[in-house]
Amino acid sequence: MTAAPQRHAALVGGMGWTGAQVVDAARAHGCRLSLIQEAAQITDHHRATATRVIGVNDLADTEAVIREVKAIHEQDPVDHVFSVTEFGLVPAAAAAHALGIRTPVPMDVAGLLRSKSRMRELLNDQPEFAVRSHRCFTYEEVADAANDVGYPAIVKPDDAWGSLGVRRVDDETGLRAAFEESDDIGCAVLVEEFLEGPEYSVEAFSHAGRHHVLAVTRKVKLPNFVEIGHVVSGTLSAAEVTVAQTATRFLDVVGLTDGNSHTELIVTPSGPRIVESHNRPGGDSIPYLVHLATGINLAELAVAVPLGLMDVPHRRDRQSGAAIHFWVGEPGTVIAVPRLSDAAREQCVEATFTARPGQRVTEVLHSFDRIGFVITRGTTGDDALALARDLVESHPFEIALVATGELAHDRLDRVRRYARGG
Length: 422
Prior knowledge:
This protein is α+β, with helices and mostly antiparallel strands. The chain is built from 14 helices and 19 strands. Strand 1, helix 1 (16-28) and strand 2 (32-38) form a beta-alpha-beta unit.
């Protein structure tokens, strides 16, 4: 009997736990995996585990990604091209389109999800999803749009990530500053009605048009919308079931039929409303939380299901939960990182400090400005979150504070750098 030929997938980018898990899953399922990664993000694990690793200067350079995938495909035909990171999504879809290779999300859908305004235009034909919004290019257009949607209003870049440049504006006083911050990023500015209520994200995997909701994540956010915590429970609450149902209807509307999705919603008094969605697993270690709370590996699904190497698992309720909580600090210089006792470390699944002694801590504008995190497990998601929050609050960084004004000069440079991915 002749053995089935080994499948070959090309992964465009992939960092942290999710990227490492995709590479490991490919090997576990007997799949060859070619990784196209920004050179600075290539790890020893990638080199040791992937079939081949190709470095590029900029993952968002679509033409460079197409050239590399084409070269790989000519040498070793590729069955599937995909990405699990934000700036690889459109290049992966473009490479697949250019070469006629399978990909979970085609160019038109990937582009729709990257553009908040295009998504809003589509959704506004659906009463369930309608949110008043305007795409603007000048301050005068922003002022007119804010008057139309009413105050408070949300002003944000049309194409950015990590809560970058998202501002709540309560009146005309702060409108110009909010416009200038979004405009400086270099894309159109979106003005939307303010959605008030608890925020969730729905972690799903779709296959052949069927959407499998595998977890729902609750958010903990700062007043400026930067996320500092996530919690996943093994059992969905009634509110989370409603959120999940809304998300699957949304995926049908935007035409996503295959692959991972991470859809963010706010539950307003009139029901759930979509904030944004991505055809990838969530960031901030959310796939790791899903794995801890439910046993389901979203990264494994990304490579194995499209190649017919496994089926999408059924979600089963279980008494468990997982959470992540981040450290943030006031502007200054780190003197010392938290000293976790052996007892405290035993309560953590993981504790990571991303800021080191001597490093400058800045005003929190983006997820990059957080300075560490702790991941915990519990009998419920609430238990896990309470533990993570307590560990962060009881183990602060030691920071020599400075006046905020001393750091203000680099705000614009950082905003622009973050818009390019770091």
